[in-house]
Amino acid sequence: MTPVQRRNAYVFGTVCSVLTLGLLAWPVRPTQEPAPNTGSHYAGPEYAARRTAPSTIAAPLRLTSSQPVEAVPATPVIAAPTLIGLLGSRQAYLRSATSGEVERVPIGGEIDGWRVIAITGRAVTVNRPGNQQKLQLFNVDKQMPSVGSPDSPPETAG
After folding, report:
1. Which of 21, 91, 141, 142 fits a disulfide with 87 by CB distance 3.0 to 4.6 angstroms?
2. How many angstroms separate the CA atoms of 111 and 105, rounded?
3. Is the dihedral of CA 97, 29, 108, 88 positive or negative?
């Protein structure tokens, strides 16, 4: 390697190191308020709507009972955010259930009305008035079958 090539490699390495350190030290802005709901986030082409019912459907079904059916009020489904990752034991990456954006939320922070109250191991506990959920990073309810168990696929020689 010639002295000029050695100097160029040194300068290139130094510039890359300085830029990397600059990006790591870049200040993190707090999350901004979500934009008002302007409808769908889909920016692709618009398609014509389908017909609501095919023409093969005849008359609606009739109830055979003479008793009136009481309407049950639907309980609103409150979707919790999805846990994407953890940043130490103080912050978590959560995907918003409403906007779909991933946000970095500290303990005590809020996303979609859910407040992060604890971060432990691979789980984040969030609560909303009257509702508390524990979000798991890796759902390990189903155990993987061990090698050689009857549930595992046969090994192929090759």
Report:
1. 91
2. 7
3. positive
- What are the structural domains, with CATH classification, of the chain? 79-138 (2.30.30)
pLDDT more than 70, % of the chain: 57
Tokens describing residue 86: 């953890």
* pTM of this structure: 0.42
Amino acid identity of residue 104, one-letter, is: R
Torsion of CA 43, 44, 49, 53, to 10 degrees: -100
Distance CA 113, CA 80 (A): 9
Q: Mean pLDDT, to the nearest integer, of 33-56?
A: 60
Buried b / exposed e across 43-78, counting CB within 10 Å, b at 16+? eeeeeeeeeeeeeeeeeeeeeeeeeeeeeeeeeeee
Report CA 19 to chain centroid distance, whole Å. 30
| Residues 111-129, mean pLDDT to the nearest whole number | 91
Q: Which two tokens stand for residue 71?
A: 């309407």
Tell me the CA end-to-end span of the chain in Å, nearest whole number: 46
Closest CA to 127 of 109, 139, 142: 109
| Helix boundaries (H) for the chain | 3-24
With contact defined as beta carbons under 8 Å apart, do 133 and 127 qualify?
yes
